[in-house]
Fold Flavodoxin.
Amino acid sequence: MDWKVTAMYFSATGTTKKIIVGIAEKLSENINGERKVTIQDFTLPDSRQEPKQFTANDIVVFGVPVYAGRVPNVLLKYLNSVAGNGALAIAVTVYGNRNYDDALIELTDILQANGFTVIAGGAFIGEHSFSKTLAKNRPDDQDMAIVKEFAHQLKVKLIDQNSVEPVEVSGNRPYRYYYIPKNEQGEPVDIRKVTPKTNDRCTNCGLCTRLCPMGSIDSEEASKMKGICIKCGACVKSCPVNAKYYDDKNYIRHKEELEIDFSHRREPELFI
Ligand SMILES: Cc1cc2nc3c(=O)[nH]c(=O)nc-3n(C[C@H](O)[C@H](O)[C@H](O)COP(=O)(O)O)c2cc1C
């Protein structure tokens, strides 16, 4: 059987994209003899307008970053509109070295409920969206070697063992509630309304406006917000003149706490 391999992902700062495209290309090479894959990137708002349909010939390597230990809730409506129609899926979450908590099991359940058979899962690590030091430059070469190993194991399951058994991944049902940051007193703080500031280095080049996954940055005046901010890091990390930053004290405290408490390198986990 000739499989059509698709790399499908949301990736504001590119770490999920690197893992998903890496798995999909290697898998395609292993099972079809060529690295060619279809890219279905649903990071930008326009790309989430059309519902996506697959068929039984498709294998979809499907990835989202972990937000607050779960699948990003701003994506749930779109994710529920993706129809598997008997396609196979590999569910992958990418997290910033704290924990993926129940994100992988949640993504697996969503895909199964939408008509995919999820034959494997993976939890990988990417540089944390809030930080330039936590899991810095990951996925790195070691991670990409595990991507290659995962693609090999997928080929063994699919072709050598001719198996499309659904996978069990780690996580709890019911899922844990969204991870909530705390202040110095250990009290929960709500940083959902926090938005980035813009300093006077901004030239209004328009890059952050084009990259914002929520379409929230004004196209004439980049310091103006016209929608919600999910703190995905796209504007801060992509700005060529470092004009975007957060100065909210709870956000900064949370980021610094993560950098200290979760500096120990975590390794990818594969479920197959
Ligand atoms: C709002 C938000 C919440 C996050 N929550 C977690 C988390 O619970 N655990 C974790 O390890 N990383 C967390 N991260 C970090 C991202 O999962 C991680 O940096 C990921 O690699 C980003 O993927 P991307 O580069 O494809 O955007 C969070 C990031 C954001 C923006």
Q: What stands out?
A: The first helix runs from residue 15 to 32. Residues 4-175+264-271 form a domain with the Rossmann fold fold (CATH 3.40.50.360). The longest strand covers residues 117-125.
